[in-house]
Amino acid sequence: MHAWCLLINALWTKSVWLTMLCSALLCSTHSSPSPMRTQNFSDELEKTSGPVFLPDGQLSNTDLALIPWAYRYYVFEHYRGPDFKIPQTQEMEPYHEWFDHVMNLESVKRTLPDKDRYLEHICKYADGSARSKVANAVRRGVAAHDFDDEKDDY
Fold it and tell me: Which of the two ends of the chain, N or C, has the fewest CB atoms closer than 10 A to its terminal CB?
């Protein structure tokens, strides 16, 4: 097989994983994280040479798309309790290795919000007092693009 075919195949495969992982992990982030979704992520990481999706510790689009969401999982534990903490189990070891690796990259650290300030910002969503299109859609159980400001009550 020609090198360009291998490259296209590799890019397509990573693109498929990016789409699958993001939809599997992120679809529920406004309501609650799913332990099974996080377990699936850990399972997929185990298939790689680790700790990230590409060889030699290179960050991929998959890693970059998931970093902000993985970082913010602490919000669920804070507002919903310890049942929402990602467990420290052997099955989740690939996830925790990935998390520790990416969170310790200087290029990632510089982009992350301060945890206390973010909790302060997000608390209005946790207590139901936020007034925005996204907040209203979350309360109604619909996607923000399905919420019509003209027709739907706040």
Answer: N
For the chain, what is the largest distance between any 2 Cα atoms, rounded to a whole number of angstroms?
Answer: 58
Domains of the chain: 3-112 (1.20.1050.10), 123-154 (no CATH)
Encode the chain (154 residues) as per-residue pLDDT tens digits.
444 444 444 544 555 555 655 555 545 444 555 555 677 778 888 888 889 888 888 888 888 888 998 899 899 889 889 988 888 999 889 999 999 999 999 999 999 999 999 999 888 888 888 888 777 777 777 777 776 666 556 5
Please name which of 118, 144, 120, 150 lies closest in space to residue 132, comparing C-alpha atoms.
144
Does the reported pTM lie above 0.85? no
